[in-house]
Specification:
heterodimer, A: mainly alpha, B: 290 residues, mainly alpha, MetI-like fold
Amino acid sequence: MGLTSQRLLAVAALLAVWQLVIWSGSLPSMTPGVPAIVTAIANAFTSALFWTSLAQTMTAAVTGWVIAVTAGTVLGLVIGSVPMLDRSTSILIDFGRSFPVLALMPVVIMLLGATAQMEIFVVSLSCLWPVLVQTIYGARRMDASVVDTARTFQIPRLLWFRRILLPSATPFISTGIRISASIAILVSVGVEVLSQTPGIGRQITLAQQAQRWDQAFAYLFFAGLVGWGIAGLLNLAEGKILKWNRQAND
Amino acid sequence: MTETALRTPPKPGPGTVSTKNASVRQAGGTFRERSRFAKALLNVLQRTWLIALVFAIWWTASANSTNIFIPSLEDILLSLRRDLSNGVIGSGASYSLTNLGAGLLLAVVVGIAGGLVLGETRRLREIVDPVIHFFRSVPQAALVPLIIGAFGIGQGPKIYTIAFACMWPVLLNTIDGVLGVEPTIRKFSKVYRIPAGLHFRRVVLPAALPQIVAGIRVALPIGITVMVVSELFAANKGLGFYILNSSATFQVPETWAGALLVGVIGYILSLLFIVFERRILSWYFKSGAK
């Protein structure tokens, strides 16, 4: 039996267990069974509301993520290559990255309202830290011989930044970018759950409040699928872009 | 500056030839001591000036704020101190942190056990791999309305949500750690027919421990986030409830205070975790491994 069919079998077994648990009555009565969820997933495909909410969530997530990646890379390269700045910002950055940004939601809602801009702000604030921290790590790890060579040849500052610092930090930066992409999805959905900003998260809450549990599970399934797809794509892209790095390490 | 001070040789003091060496050494010692002190002071200054600056700017910029949503930092800290001293925050924090601790513990136990099994059995790992990655990708915050909707706003559902969210990094890191065990060590264990229980406990687990602890380090901030979100969504106790309740009753300084406090708690927990990591993995760091 091939691996694929075994995997399908595993999924089927999981669904069977789910259905059995439902039948056994040990879960609250509103939990939907497998057929109900499957129907709801199929219905979601043809529902305009679903695609609009998915687009809203994705727009906010991607916008916030792009802002965070840009800001995090630039700031990180500067901070990581200037030891004085590195030391000065270390506590602030440690504090920032261990700050659960979603706890700020009530404050941010007071200031910006439950708007798409607010969602983008929270997403980019959450995604900034992994990119920033990884970039700083990458910029710190400059080879001393490379630094000396660049100094000897009097490489101009900008060229040095673009052709020496950036490539050597790229493996680290790409890890940060990958981590922050999944955070972007998580946080955008989380913001929608908490603030009722339009998107998948809001739809899940609404479906649950309307006792449409099948729909809520279907949306949850899609949210997971999107996160999974993005993680897979970025892994693939990282492997392709950083081929030179892998080869060098081997 | 201190570097050059160190490098300039201390001037030989007066004295006979036999004591000259000693006096030089002594001079060098105090020199080094003084410059070490200066270095430490400089280090502390370099690390803290920015925090102090941010604090000062916030304090002065918000002092005369007319926007009711941006209270002065003084008001925020005063209400924080009041609610800390009258125990309102204390009881909320102990509720929240109990949930976090219980959820994290559950996640660690299940994650390590599952990770050990999956790491050791290649076929099973390959079969369930897509399922694991799917569950890991489900946005944890989206689970909160479902779990709370189904099981109510009690403590149990919150703990399970935290455990579910924190389990995946622990599980995946444990698998990685198990896969990273030296093949030679594995062969030794097999050749000497170490019983399965002993093999897991004394061979695989210690070898995978650095990676497992790294997984828990990833899980900790996720757990804190889910803890707060579960309380911000619906609760009648806890830090998240404190924030939500103050914002619902327009106690703006309290809302800010609660949010900042959660941040500080998150920071302190991550520092404590580093201490814990150093201690539990001291053998690993001593071996110079990276």
